[in-house]
Amino acid sequence: MIRQTSGSGTDVEQVMEALNQISGGRMVMNWQDIAAGTNPYVVMKTSNIPGKSVMEIPGLVFGDARKPVRRIGVGMTLTESMIELASGMNLDLLVVHHPVADAASSGGVPFADYLPLYGLALIEMHEAFHGLHPGMTFLHGHSKLATDIAFGGIPGNVLHKGVALRGVRTAGDILQRLETWMGRDIDIGLLEAERAIRGESGLQEATLANPARLLSGTPDKPVEHILHFFPHTGFTMEHLETALALYPETDTIIASISRVREDHPFVGFARERGLNFIVGNPHSVEILENGLPLAYALEMSLPDVEVFLLRERVTAVPLREIGHEGMVSYGKEMAETYLVSKSFKAVPIKKDA
Fold first, then answer.
1. How far apart are CA 153 and CA 149, in angstroms?
2. Residue 329: C-alpha distances to residues 179, 197, 343 (Å)
3. Whole-angstrom Cα distance, residue 279 to residue 45?
């Protein structure tokens, strides 16, 4: 049972207790767990670029555990846009999927200087949430029979082995299923309306720019035994060969969240083996795949708290098509006068004598 406070309402610690129950005890409830190395979901992520690594800590990253919570925002990746939205909505707590880092996730400034201005506490989950529900495989048309969340000994390198759901018979069925479940027609209508309103015919949007695609096989080719992985987690050709040796009955490979191109070795390998190869949902819809189930789980666990799904929408437009004439003039004047002109010199910062 979730602990009840003596007064009315919920606090951050209760939210942590709810998340710990939801995750099956994966959250860092005591910072000593980190020093003791007892929580396997505390993971360092690094590309070996000096100073750019980040430690994932599934737990309360910033804020007071006793802080009252009435409104929670569930998001995917923390940005300054999300922080500003939370401010405008008077949220008390942000629960985000991906690991956060000072400055990188908060507009270039430390959390301690930014989040207190808006009374925000911050919790992250990531690897502690992976594998808790079968939604991602369900959306991609298969029921998972086995899951390894550290395939090849790499934390977060997730591999699902699944079998096609009833009614999913071909590769084309999977593509159509994703189109329907993700509400792609709504996003298409929204983009078309925005293009018309802004007068920006070349406007692109992240979700629509990366649709599900069939890179090996044909839409009518049968589907039954499926391997599903995520290229950005460190999944290699060696991993794929090992997985196919473990599951030789495989006829379909699905790579989702991150993408591979048609010329990727994975695709060539699938074509040589006569396997279907599908790139499924992009990372930009993981807020629906993983964020939405988490948000509903919090709402069910904490009925006194209002929960919001924070979905960022990223667009791109050619400079020549930007429709707001005032901002076009502003941007060009700043560039020409201060950034490109050789006659302008920036004012040097005075050093103490």
1. 9
2. 40, 19, 20
3. 25
